[in-house]
Amino acid sequence: MKRPIYFDTETTGVRFDKDRIIEIAGFDPVLNRTFSQLVNPKCPIPKEATAIHGITDEMVKDAPTFKEAGQQFIDFCEGDIVIVAHNYDAFDALFLKEECKRHQLPLPSWPSVDTLKWARKYRPDLPRHALQFLRQIFGISENNAHRALDDVVMLYQIFSIMIDDLSFETILELMKQASSSSSSLQHMPFGKYQGKPLSQVPKDYIQWLFTNGALEKPENGELKSAFERLGLLTG
After folding, report:
1. pTM as predicted
2. N or C: which end of the chain has fewer CB within 10 A?
């Protein structure tokens, strides 16, 4: 049986090709152990990023670089595991792959569950699927939001409620089926055009979302990619 590792990162920004990971966290509920490590990105942390997660240059100055911290996390994920993270495919996975490439670390081919995609697929009744909104919906106590380990533990609590007693083998199979039947986001997930096919969302509204930074939010990475694939977003 596959063992879940709930995972999250904090970063210097939202561009995986330019920004850096500054914190890695993981929670293994089966072995009841955690992983939490600040990472020295070898570059200044923008004030706007610090305003979100509270991590400063001073906090990471003596931390290991990703080469060491990344290897520690890979070691933490030993065995037959599945990575579980919110918006993993459009955010954390991209950063993890880029950092491993940058530091010449071999990244295992872990199976993964993107809980944002799961929530959108199996709870379409909810108006939003951001982690903090799900926390409120499921009555999970508020924590230190946007620090990696706190978000990881919160995700574990939320997702445990959402999946009930489903095995991760079953979850992976359901996600595989969902992916094969719908290779990308097809309908507007929020806002005044919620539920409308993406191809029918007015271009001026899409441009407004882009100009106002809504499409740069981690939870909207899949939406931005879908608009780009449809040729509706030109930047």
Report:
1. 0.78
2. C
